[in-house]
Design a protein that fits this description.
This protein has 160 residues and is an alpha+beta fold. 26% of the residues lie in helices and 39% in strands. A 5-stranded antiparallel beta sheet has the order 7-6-5-4-8. Strands 1-2-3 form a 3-stranded mixed beta sheet.
Amino acid sequence: MSESVDKIKADVKAFVANSFPYEIFDITYKPVHGHMVLEVTIDTPDGVTVEDCEKVSRGLSDYLDEVDLIHQAFTLEVSSPGVERVFRRQVDYERHVGRLVRWTLFDESTGRKEAFQARLQEFSPDRIVVRSEKGLREFPLTSVKEAKAILEFPPRMQRG
């Protein structure tokens, strides 16, 4: 089964990359309540609209019907990773420099887990610099168990 799942993911990724101006954020093919679901999450530097998801869904649905890649009933879902996304790719970190992030770090040597919010100041694959209420802090990407964007609303205007 994993070989066919890997082929489905590879073919879907290739089709989207060759047919649309979107990046693949994630692809899963899994059972949900006894029914198979193919979830395709797309992204762009400027975000994804409902119309983008609809366009990819229609094109991908036609492609999957044409090539008969999946030999059982399934549901196709195309979505964006959302504003409060979990970072999975290097580009997710790069695109969120200057923004507030919820960090979960894990120290392998002590087995200690730590969660906090801090603004991402600098990113490289070797080093992350953040600014929290306590000041600047630096740590390696390898210590990040999870990083998740936080939606910030503009400050409210004072009524006077």
